[in-house]
Design goal:
The chain is α+β, with helices and mostly antiparallel strands. It contains 3 helices and 11 strands. A 6-stranded mixed β-sheet has the order 8-1-2-11-10-9. It has a 5-stranded mixed β-sheet with strand order 3-6-7-5-4. Strand 1 and strand 2 form a beta hairpin.
């Protein structure tokens, strides 16, 4: 991943935790970070889709990233956040245990995921590993975390919910 042309490039990452693991996603994919709010469950949704929330008039699908990545979560606390991210054409909320910082990382401190690294996270979700001082960050590829089909499935439910809200308002 780090070649001569990228040596001086820097990326900015939003750093967050799920359980004991630290992750990073590129800041340009993160729209905002909000406190955990009431989530409306969606029937027949995959287990990792928590439901939908109304965020200032926009209904967005919320997934539990710990469930999606099959990781133990710290559980819901005052530090739990919803990271609102852009995945392709869609806006999705991702529940994480906490968000700690925005970090600048030079491209030469990012490596492809070594095959010997033991992680519970499915390899296709990973963009690489970032090294910052004495810690390693698992860099997620959000476009892989949710497949197009899963996003379409969730979006269909969001549209159904929007329609029912409009009917109730009349």
């Amino acid at each position: 991943m780090a070649d001569a042309g990228k040596k001086n490039e820097e990326i900015q990452l939003v750093v967050f935790k799920i359980g004991d693991e630290e992750f990073g996603v590129e800041i340009n994919q993160v729209r905002e970070i909000v406190k955990l709010v009431s989530i409306t469950r969606m029937p027949k949704a995959p287990v990792f889709i928590e439901g939908v929330v109304n965020l200032r008039g926009q209904i967005i699908t919320v997934i539990d990233l710990a469930k999606r990545l099959d990781l133990p979560s710290a559980g819901k606390t005052d530090s739990t956040r919803i990271m609102v991210v852009e995945v392709g054409e869609d806006t999705v909320g991702m529940i994480v245990d906490s968000v700690s910082e925005v970090l600048r990382l030079s491209a030469d401190n990012i490596e492809d995921t070594p095959s010997f690294i033991e992680t519970e996270v499915h390899e296709r979700y990973l963009r690489g590993v970032g090294k910052s001082e004495d810690r390693l960050l698992i860099l997620l590829d959000l476009n892989e975390v949710l497949s197009t089909e899963e996003i379409k499935h969730a979006s269909k439910h969001v549209e159904i919910m929007k329609d029912s809200v409009k009917k109730e308002e009349k």
